[in-house]
Design goal:
By secondary structure, this protein is an alpha/beta fold. It has twelve helices and 15 strands. The radius of gyration is 24 Å and the shape is globular. Bound molecules: prephenic acid (PRE). Pathway: Metabolic intermediate biosynthesis; prephenate biosynthesis; prephenate from chorismate: step 1/1; Amino-acid biosynthesis; L-phenylalanine biosynthesis; phenylpyruvate from prephenate: step 1/1.
């Protein structure tokens, strides 16, 4: 007997078992899908105010499957499968449109795809403020915007858009943590690179790598990492710092992977929409406020949260752009706006603020996608 035929004989009964299990899986998946269709009927009939995308329920479903999973498949794999299942659920209930800062291949695109899967309609938009505008106008159901990076801090455009859209119907309803790994993409060898294009954030996140590997190359900012890849694909002697998705989309070679200075480089994204998320028991609330220009005004507000025993997970500031040296502060606190403790703290904080807006409450993201 030929050696090459032996393994197939050994595999045949196992493959038959796999075929039978696949049949059972398909039947079960469709049984689940039929229940989802009923959920969709109830949501679409107006019997409930629960939106099609229910971040609190999504969190619950993922927590349950993590707890139930006994392996050998790791939770990350099981979770990715369930995210695709829920993506299919949206298509069955009502197809969702999700907008992000384009063009295709940006980290916002990647964050949106990891969170919402393949059964969603995606819209790539020209700027972060357009994502807010399109949500506000109702052209898209949800938008994905970057809020802060673990190496470079706040994303100013997003904070400014909250200033513009505060008091409107645009809310934060979920957050995403995405591991950000940068790549040097080019169609020429390293020693021929004269210019490196990217968005200002990745250029800063790869500062040390660029100084040691490409000390003489000019660093040029582009509107997005994908725009940078597009320029590098047609300009000789140019490279881009961008994602692998962009390398595929713009036909560039990946010369170096993971060139970020901080290997645990992570960006936090907000999902914005006109909808709210119900409390899950492990939530955050994002708040924007401004105070009088007086001694201790900021600490008065922060002390209110301390006095209610509420932990702050994030603080930032942004110029008001109306009066020089006047600022808006952004904080994230642990707890949901509907939790008594948080409701009371915000009531008390109002006494120390000229203006205070709740930007949204949402389940705390547990995993880096
Ligand atoms: O339970 C819901 O509200 C659903 O829409 C179903 C479902 C699911 O597939 O499990 C789908 C999407 C998420 O929003 C949460 C749950």
């Amino acid at each position: 007997m030929n050696d090459k035929t032996a393994p197939d004989d050994a595999l045949a009964p196992l493959r038959q078992q796999i075929d039978e299990l696949d049949q059972q899986l398909i039947d079960l998946l469709n049984e689940r899908a039929r229940v989802v269709v009923e959920v969709g009927h109830i949501k679409n009939s107006g019997q409930t105010d629960t939106p099609i995308y229910a971040p609190d329920r999504e969190q619950q479903v993922l927590a349950k499957i993590r707890k139930r999973n006994q392996g050998p498949l790791p939770n990350s794999c099981i979770e990715a499968i369930w995210r695709e299942l829920m993506s299919g659920s949206f298509a069955l209930e009502r197809p969702l449109r999700v907008g992000y800062l384009g063009p295709q291949g940006t980290f916002s695109h990647l964050a949106a795809r990891r969170k919402f899967g393949a059964s969603i309609e995606y819209d790539n938009l020209v700027g972060i403020s357009s994502v807010f505008e399109e949500v506000h106008r109702g052209h898209i159901d949800l938008g994905v915007v970057p809020i802060e990076n673990s190496t470079e801090g706040a994303v100013g455009d997003t904070l400014d858009s909250f200033l513009t859209y505060s008091g409107t119907d645009v809310n934060v309803c979920a957050e995403i943590l995405l591991g950000i790994h940068h790549n040097l993409l080019a169609n020429c060898p390293l020693n021929e690179i004269k210019r490196v294009y990217s968005h200002p954030q990745p250029l800063a996140q790869c500062r040390n790598w660029l100084s040691s590997q490409l000390p003489n190359a000019e660093r040029i900012t582009a509107a997005s990492t994908s725009k940078a890849a597009e320029i590098a694909s047609r300009e000789p002697g140019s490279a881009a710092i961008s994602s692998k998705l962009a390398a595929e989309l713009y036909n560039l070679k990946t010369l170096f992977e993971n060139i970020e200075d901080n290997p645990s480089n992570t960006t936090r994204f907000f999902i914005i929409g006109k909808q709210y998320s119900r409390p899950t028991g492990d939530d955050k609330t994002s708040i924007m406020f401004t105070t009088e220009h007086a001694a201790g005004a900021l600490s008065d507000v922060l002390n209110v949260f301390r006095d209610h025993g509420i932990n702050l997970t994030h603080i930032d500031k942004r110029p008001s752009k109306r009066v020089n040296w006047e600022y808006y502060f952004f904080i994230d606190v642990q707890g949901h706006i509907k939790d008594d403790k948080v409701t009371k703290a915000i009531e008390d904080a109002k006494k120390h603020c000229l203006q205070i807006n709740v930007l949204g409450a949402y389940p705390r993201a547990r995993d880096v996608l």
